[in-house]
Design a protein that fits this description.
Elements (H helix, E strand, L loop, with lengths): L2 H32 L9 E8 L1 H12 L9 E2 L3 E4 L5 E5 L2 E2 L23 E2 L2 E5 L5 E4 L12 E12 L7 E11 L9 E11 L5 E9 L11 E9 L2 E7 L12 E7 L10 E3 L4 E2 L21 E5 L2 E7 L9 E6 L23 E8 L9 E9 L4 H10 L7 E9 L2
Antiparallel strand pairs: 1-23, 2-5, 3-4, 4-7, 5-6, 7-8, 9-10, 10-11, 11-12, 13-14, 14-15, 15-16, 16-17, 18-19, 19-20, 21-22, 22-23
């Protein structure tokens, strides 16, 4: 081989080694950020699951109790937060109040029922004792409508200090504000993310403030509402959200993430949004999960952290999304998210025509390697007077149901 050829070959080899070293250095530099504290981040997925009849039965017991005529008899959008004194505050979106009768119901079926004139409010909150006994419904709606044809749905909640350095604690509740709209926006046009403050221990509403107003985003399907899930990691509270692409016939919606320093959920200026490259205030959020076809999230989803791994639960894409829950995992809230993993189908009432939705994890009710997950149940045709009449004819449908999961090694 000529000398100049040998020189070129050695040069290429040296450049290859140098490039490999640079890539390794970059990888080692980025890895701790991807994994936050640099800890282990194994792939996680659902290893096993089982129905949780105890929690499901407790909500059925409370909903069927006819001792009061102004309390919760059914609702969806199930979220929970543990209070400092051990109680659990359960938050619901659209809620039926009134009384439950039967069975049998007026058409002779063996189901408990409510009158079709029973009050329907846009949100409610139910208090559970530290021992797990549902005790009372707060005056509903807890969060008043912001205006004509507008309403608030509560989502994730956290307990925070009222202000930095304060000894007083309060509950911060994230709210989705929606405005009535025509098809395909039968569940309302996404409008804004708000944060409400509830005093402790009396759970009195102290105020509501806007965090992110989306009315200036012209494409309604790209408006992002935050709060479907929130969790603490390091010095931050991470708040996840989604868009409404499913409303315009996309198989899935896309997930987004924001963060705030601990204790500042109610301060709009403290919020930072992931824009695809960095965290920034006043940035246009960029999706962290969702290709619009195979990967993505349902209208609501939940995220938990186990060790150094984040696990996201959502309804499966496509037809499976009517009955099956799937999961993704990542080493950081911003991803990359891996999945979807193999899905599972929680129990649904018999008779067909029923869908599951809104899987929500409840870490404060979990422990010993077990994770409690709720899901809501409704008719596939869940809008309009006819659907509401069917829900009233069988009150067990519009109540949360629960499963217990164990996470294991994924891939």
């Amino acid at each position: 081989m000529p000398d100049d050829a040998r020189v070129r070959q050695r040069t290429r080899a040296a450049l290859g080694v140098l490039l490999a070293l640079v890539c390794a250095a970059v990888f080692l530099t980025v890895l701790p950020d991807d994994r936050e504290d640099g800890g282990a981040c194994p792939a996680r997925t659902v290893a096993s699951w089982a129905a949780d009849p105890g929690l499901t039965a407790e909500f059925a017991r409370y909903g069927d109790d006819a001792a009061r005529s102004d309390d919760w008899t059914g609702g969806d959008g199930t979220h929970s937060v543990r209070l400092p004194d051990g109680r659990v505050l359960w938050l619901f979106s659209d809620t039926y109040l009134g009384r439950v009768y039967g069975p049998p119901n007026p058409v002779g079926e063996s189901y408990a029922w409510r009158d079709t004139s029973a009050p329907l409010v846009r949100n409610s909150a139910v208090v559970m004792s530290a021992s797990g006994h549902l005790e009372r419904t707060l005056a509903a709606p807890l969060f008043p409508d912001p205006g004509a044809d507008r309403w608030r749905w509560p989502v994730a909640a956290r307990v925070e200090r009222r202000s930095p350095g304060s000894a007083e604690r309060v509950v911060r509740v994230l709210l989705w504000t929606r405005t009535a709209g025509e098809a395909p926006w039968i569940y309302g046009v996404p409008t804004a993310t708000e944060v409400a403050t509830l005093s402790l221990p009396d759970l009195r509403l102290d105020g509501i403030g806007t965090v992110l107003d989306q009315r200036s985003v012209p494409d309604v399907s790209r408006r992002v509402l935050f709060g479907t899930s929130a969790l603490d990691a390091g010095e931050w509270t991470y708040v996840f959200g989604g868009d409404d692409r499913q409303a315009v016939k996309h198989p899935v919606s896309r997930a987004y993430v924001a963060r705030v320093p601990h204790g500042t959920l109610a301060e709009p200026g403290a919020w930072e949004y992931w824009d695809g490259k960095r965290w920034a205030a006043r940035a246009r959020p960029a999706p962290v999960l969702g290709d619009g076809r195979r990967t993505g999230v349902g209208s609501a989803f939940s995220v938990v952290r186990e060790g150094g791994t984040y696990v996201l639960f959502t309804m499966a894409a496509g037809a499976g999304g009517l009955t099956s829950v799937t999961s993704y995992w990542a080493c950081a809230p911003t991803g990359p998210w891996h999945g979807p993993a193999r899905s599972f189908s929680p129990p649904l009432p018999g008779g067909g025509g029923v869908a599951a939705y809104n899987p929500q994890a409840h870490p404060t009710l979990s422990g010993g390697g077990r994770l409690v997950l709720s899901y809501d149940v409704n008719w596939l045709t869940a809008s309009g007077a006819a659907a509401q009449a069917r829900l009233s004819r069988n009150v067990s449908l519009y109540r949360p149901r629960f499963v217990t999961l164990r996470l294991g090694r994924g891939r």
